[in-house]
Every structure is written in C-alpha cells, then in structure tokens.
Amino acid sequence: FGIASDETFVITTTNRKEITEDNFSELVQDGVTLYLLQSVDQVLPLATKERIDFLPHYDTLVKSGMYEYYASEGQNPLPFALAELIDNSLSATSRNTGIRSIQIKLLFDDSQGKPAVAVIDNGSGMTSKQLNNWAVYRLSKFTRQGDFESDHSGYVRPLPVPRSLNSDISYFGVGGKQAVFFVGQSARMISKPAESQDVHELVLSKEDF
After folding, report:
1. Model's pTM, two decimal places?
2. Which InterPro entries does this one have (predicted)?
3. DSSP codes joined into one string, 70-94
C-alpha cells in the first residue's frame, strides 16, 4: 500500500469501527469493505464504492410493487406507496429532540433528470451497513443484528393509536422497495448519520439490473 515504516495507520469498517486483534474475526467477513486510514476520523479524500450482493432475482424486487399494489382490492394504491416512503422518515425522526422535518417533493424539471418523488427528512441518518440492509429484499427490521445493524435499533412496536401514523407501516422490510418500484424505476437514497462526517448513497435501478 506504499506505507512508509515510520507511518501509522488504522484499518476500519465503513462504519469507522477500527479493526483490532480482538474484533478481527467478528468484523472482517467475506465481501466486507474496509478503509485504510491515517486515523479513524480521517476525512475521506474521495468517494468510495461498496458492492452489495443479495440473492433474489431482480424481478422479485422491481416487479414486487406492481403485484403488491395492484392487489389492493380496487383502491387507489398510490397513497399506500407514498405512505411506505414516508414511514422511513417517520422512523428516522422518531427520536429527534427538536423539530421533526419531513418534506415530500414531486420533481418534474426534465433539466434535472427524470421526474421523481423526493422524501427529505432531518432524522438520525443511516450508516453504510444500515443502507446495505435496506437494499436487501425481505430483511426484517427484527432480524438485523450485529455490525449489520438496523435503522430500527432497539425497536419496540408502538401501540396502535387511532387516526395517527406510528411508523409501523413497513413491518416486514419489503414495503419501501415495493413502493419505490411501484412509483418509478429507480431509488436513490442519500443519508448522513447524525454523529458521522460521512455521507452514504445507495442507487437501485431497474435499468442497471
């Protein structure tokens, strides 16, 4: 790696957990992406890419929304799809100590790319592993363990409250992706954990598949 003998360095996960002799077997698994840095909190000099592998055929992902929402017993399915997307923001902002800000924007300016639905919030943000987990089809919020942590860490199912949203819509870990591919043909998620300087981006595209 071109490291001089008098230089110090650390090896970390993309969540900035330093690899040590004690945690090596726990954190270093097949396919994991590692950083070689001068210090754990070093600013990354350029963007990095991480490959995400999962087993289902891409049709399972990109067509699931159509099958799910067209089976909604004759109701207009679009509000249900939007509710799934908003649920991510409700969950992310549920522990905010200040204002909870959730914006829904419909973007139709062709000069900025294809039309899109944008959901923006000021929630806790997701680490790279949490974003990875979101990409994996049918990874329930209850089974995301260890370094592959959930964005619902310490999740306790809320009590049902009449006429309110309680962020328990996407119960089995498929709703968000079904909603995305019902509304459109690609998903782009940009997230910065509140306690981190790193910004993580995930793109799922029917065209790329």
Report:
1. 0.63
2. HATPase_C_sf, SMCHD1
3. HTSTTS--HHHHHHHHHHHHHHHTT
Architecture of domain 58-146+165-205: 2-Layer Sandwich (3.30)
Q: Where are the domains of the chain?
A: 1-54, 58-146+165-205
- 21 pLDDT more than 90: yes
Mean predicted confidence (pLDDT) in 8-22:
94
Query: What would the pLDDT profile of 134-144 be if each residue is shown by its tens digit?
Result: 777 665 554 55
Place of tokens 């994996």: 136
**Structure tokens, 157:** 């199912």
Distance of alpha carbon 38 from alpha carbon 76, whole angstroms: 54
pLDDT score at 171 = 47
Q: What is the distance between the alpha carbons of residues 52 and 31, in angstroms, rounded to a whole number?
A: 9
